[in-house]
């Protein structure tokens, strides 16, 4: 069984935040669900085509377990599922907006660094 080398410190605000934000697609999922309202998994998958459905589903389950998103299952065949933000999830929106503003402000810097890293990898 896997055990972490360093135990989690859930009294540390950054570690608590990373439980929600940690994961490549979680902030994007939160933002997209906020903008779209109640969304079916297929709509979410189409909105983030560079992520695999498996990864998105896994991260949606994690967000659901922390009560950031809620999953509603409608009866019928095939069953219909929709995700929406919870009230707790809505408390995260100012942070998502701040991340978006920071990213827009610094995108040229990051693009340049990415290009430099690609060149360095090609040389090696």
TrEMBL record:
Coiled-coil boundaries: none
Q: Name one GO molecular function term.
A: DNA binding
Record flagged with keyword Transcription regulation = yes
Residue ranges of every copy of the HTH hxlR-type domain listed in the record: 12-111
Q: Which UniProt keywords apply?
A: DNA-binding, Transcription, Transcription regulation
Put simply, this protein is called Transcriptional regulator
Q: Which organism is it from?
A: Pseudochryseolinea flava
């Amino acid at each position: 069984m896997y055990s972490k080398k360093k135990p989690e410190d859930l009294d540390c605000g950054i570690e608590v935040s990373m439980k929600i934000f940690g994961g490549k697609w979680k902030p994007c999922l939160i933002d997209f669900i906020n903008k779209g309202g109640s969304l079916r998994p297929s709509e979410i998958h189409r909105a983030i085509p560079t992520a695999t459905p498996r990864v998105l589903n896994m991260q949606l389950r994690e967000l659901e377990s922390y009560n950031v998103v809620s999953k509603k299952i409608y009866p019928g065949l095939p069953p219909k599922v929709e995700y929406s933000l919870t009230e707790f999830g809505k408390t995260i929106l100012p942070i998502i907006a701040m991340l978006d503003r920071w990213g827009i402000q610094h995108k040229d810097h990051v693009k340049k660094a990415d290009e430099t890293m690609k060149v360095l990898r090609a040389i090696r």
